[in-house]
Design goal:
The complex is a heterodimer of chains A (about 100) and B (about 290). By secondary structure, chain A is α+β, with helices and mostly antiparallel strands. Chain A has helices at about 40-50, 55-65, 70-85; strands spanning about 10, 15-20, 25-30, 35-40, 55, 90-95, 100. Chain A has a domain at about 5-15 and about 40-100. A four-stranded antiparallel beta sheet of chain A has the order 5-1-6-7. Chain A has a three-stranded antiparallel beta sheet with strand order 2-3-4. In chain A, helix 1 packs across helix 2 and helix 2 crosses helix 3 (about 70-85). In chain B, helix 5 (about 230-240) crosses helix 6. The model of chain B has no long low-confidence stretch (mean pLDDT about 90). The chains are: A alpha+beta (about 100), B alpha+beta (about 290).
Chain lengths: ~100, ~290
């Protein structure tokens, strides 16, 4: 069976540092020098990604619980946010025990 | 030989007689005599010689049109290789900060490019040690308070500085200034480096520190407008305006700490300014925004 987006295990790239500023987050990509600001919701996701490998499905459940939103909506929001993070090359996907840096 | 910058004392050792004369000629305004050495030495710099030139073209040090020496970190040692010099810093809690500046040819050391860049870099690291930042910005004094207009090259720092001087305001520097924490807030301190306003600022504010009234992320635009910047956006915007240390990944935590504290204490405003806006209009717009923060 094909792997769907929410089955992929992901984590924050080792080349990224982040800092909580007020209620938002500042991410710095060390190699690219890119600086990204994320919202309060984004910060919750980034913190979870920084704590260890997780999945989009787990992140959606986390967001739904934390912000009292319907799970379907949380899934859509998380997916959109992860797409943005992938585009900024700040995520690593982990397949069969091996980390694949998307950079 | 001792140099005094922004109240910090830098002892430069092992200069040859020729280099001492050249430093005195190029940076004589910074030299301090033994009688004036009332402060503790902040940094000790060893003048050294490279066995051979660095040997890389100047273009290889350009990033986005700006000169960007290469920073390599090995534990507490920072090696910064420039076009014709190599700088070493030993980072850590020990005071004074120990460093070296090495060039291949004796007469290269005192050039404004080599020694000037070295001193700017040193200031950026020293500022972090004081939990402050060296910012690419124009500093303008208004009723005893300093306002720092941070921007990349060619956005309008020097133009704003010129307008300020023409309008009778004092300008700290049109290139870079320090923002350092102090009791009750922050102070802006001038550094002896300027952009295009070098001649105009030679008799201006000398080595002064002033209460910091606000920090501006300067943009070109019309109409003249100002808006408060959220703390995270302010940190992101100012990160790019912190030369030298913002490309040293080991210093990033300290830099983020310093900026996070700065934006929590001082208003940060995004200001769009057009070519024809007068300094009075610019400051009026800025101050109204700061007051309503």
């Amino acid at each position: 069976m094909a792997e769907t987006w929410h089955d992929v295990t992901i984590r924050l790239s080792g080349r990224v540092r982040f800092r909580t500023v007020a209620e938002e987050g500042v991410l710095v990509h060390l190699r690219r020098g890119q600086v990204i600001v994320v919202s309060r919701v984004g910060l919750v996701i980034v913190k979870a990604l920084a704590q260890g490998a997780t999945s989009a499905a787990a992140l959606a459940e986390l967001v739904a619980g934390e912000f009292q939103v319907e799970l379907g909506q949380a899934r859509r929001d998380v997916e959109a946010f992860l797409d943005q993070l992938r585009a900024e090359e700040v995520l690593e996907e982990i397949n069969a025990g091996a980390a694949t840096a998307r950079e | 030989m001792s140099l005094r910058l922004a109240g910090w004392l830098i002892e430069v050792e092992n200069l040859s007689a020729g280099q001492q004369a050249m430093v005195a000629a190029e940076f004589g305004g910074l030299a301090t005599t033994n009688k004036q050495r009332t402060r503790q030495v902040t940094a000790i710099c060893n003048a050294a010689r490279l066995g051979r030139p660095v040997g890389m073209p100047l273009e290889s040090f350009a990033v986005n049109g700006e000169y960007a020496p290469r920073v390599v970190r090995d534990g507490s040692l920072v090696e910064i290789t420039g076009f014709n010099s190599v700088v070493l810093f030993e980072r850590g809690p020990r005071q004074p900060l120990l460093c070296s500046l090495a060039v291949a040819a004796e007469d290269e050391l005192a050039s404004p490019f080599v020694l000037g860049t070295f001193l700017r870099t040193l200031l950026a690291y020293l500022a972090l040690d004081w939990r402050g930042v060296l910012l690419h910005c124009a500093g303008i004094l208004h009723h005893g308070r300093a306002y720092l207009f941070a921007a990349r090259s060619n956005v309008g720092k020097t133009t704003l500085g010129r307008k300020a001087l023409a309008a009778g305001f004092s300008v700290l520097s049109d290139e870079m200034n320090l923002a350092l924490p102090c009791e009750g807030g922050y102070r802006a301190c001038s550094v002896p480096f300027t952009g295009e306003l070098r001649r105009e600022l030679q008799s201006g504010v000398d080595d002064g520190c002033f209460p910091l009234g606000g920090v501006v992320l300067l943009e070109q635009g019309q109409p003249l407008s100002a808006s408060h910047v959220r703390p995270a956006m302010a940190v992101a915007g100012l990160l790019t305006a912190c030369p030298f240390v913002n490309c040293d990944t080991e210093e990033l935590p300290a830099l983020l700490d310093a900026l996070t504290h700065l934006v929590s204490c001082v208003s940060v405003v995004r200001l769009a300014v057009g070519r024809d806006d007068s300094l009075e209009e610019v400051m009026g717009t800025l101050l109204r925004c700061c007051e309503h923060g």
